[in-house]
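#help-structures

NK: newbie question. if I give both the sequence and a SMILES, will the prediction place the ligand too? trying with magnesium ion
OV: yes, paste both and it writes out the complex. here, I ran yours:
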Amino acid sequence: MVKQREPIVAIATPYGESAIGVIRLSGLRVFERIEDSLVLRGGLRPRYAHLVKLLDKDGSILDEGILIFYPSPKSYTGEDMIELFLHGNPLILKKALELFLSKGIRLAEPGEFTKRAFLNGKMDMLQAEAVADVINAKSELALRVAQRQLQGELSAQINSLREKLLELLAYVEADIEFSEEDIPTLSREQLISILEEITGNMDRLLANVETGEYIRRGINLALVGKPNVGKSSLFNSLLGKDRAIVTHIPGTTRDLLRESLNLKGIPINLIDTAGIRHTEDVVERIGVERSLRELEKADLVLFVVDASEPLEEEDRQVYQRVKDMKHLVVLNKKDIGVHNSVLREFPEAVLLSALTGEGVEELKRLILKNLGVELGDGMQIYLSVRHADLLKKSKRVLKFLSDRLRVEDLSPEIIMLDLRESLSYLEEIVGTISTEDILGSIFSRFCIGK
Ligand SMILES: Nc1nc2c(ncn2[C@@H]2O[C@H](COP(=O)(O)OP(=O)(O)O)[C@@H](O)[C@H]2O)c(=O)[nH]1
Ligand SMILES: [Mg+2]
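OV: that's the protein plus ligand as structure tokens.
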């Protein structure tokens, strides 16, 4: 079952001085490859912390450290594996790496250890992908979600869909093979209702893909509006610090400002923009152009209006640009009064004062609601875009099949083909079916040494 491949090596800890630096090796007979560079008292024992001296090519001591040997199959990759804990000096680690490379051990590609773990059945594809997510998680919430996936919770959901399909397939195939005999078959109605149950479950999993992406990679949130409505003031208020310059002079913010903000575990890339308006000032005009470009990249836009005055043509022009995007309308300066005409135009808007801070918490809540994030969301499971694409394909086949079954009788052969096609997409999600292309694109996201 477990296959041992050519030995690979990588430094598993980040570059720089540290207390300990770790070198990982994995592959066929990897210990034998490096044995003559080690001084190790007593015999080699599995999963035992050996104190070792590492000798350079000329026999001098390169470093002293701890070596742990994990014989196949009980290792991360499933192969024979070694972890060598040396002093965390980049010079030592580099020399040790060169030493191992000179022994014909190849430098590992990004994610290659995990790829081997996957190929050896140590984890399925969903779990392997979660390893990268765990390492890259930028917020506690993202980390929690990734850990759950690593524990196999998403795999379990996909597998339960697979099992239901396999069960159906068994009925249909039996119908084909033993059509003369008296075995239980499913009626059309039963078949349709099971198919609907499966696609219903698929829909539930597909419902929060976008939110999952927000949690994983964070969101771009842009503040836009005409000059002087209070964008920079709101930017500062959301951040809780005086970052942007605020003045009563229209056109103060000329360049884009970016700051990170963490809203209930969602990393937010908050962007303050130059007020969008027609202007002859060269610098301001460049700022406006940048703002417009940034606007296109935003996942959510806060369209800010000065509510103490009637709307102007400039407000409307900005609104034209954002109204088809995911956006929230913010009516600012409520402390100095709210104009009725503005309220009438935007009855759904958030009323607040960036100056006093009143209403800013409510705005934060609405931002999260708009992104589909509810409190206590660490309990949710989120598909990535790759999974969602495959699941949608799988669902489409089943949906088409049940639609046709509703109007006509189909031969079991046709039903079988559809079920198999649908199943194949699910297998691709967990990685039972995979091609080198898919593996390449998934594991290239990893760092070297994992
Ligand atoms: N009264 C009041 N003034 C505000 C409020 N928000 C901003 N301002 C004032 O409006 C002016 C423009 O603010 P600024 O944040 O620079 O607007 P921007 O051009 O949209 O970035 C400044 O004089 C701010 O003090 C608010 O909520 N209430
Ligand atoms: Mg500003």
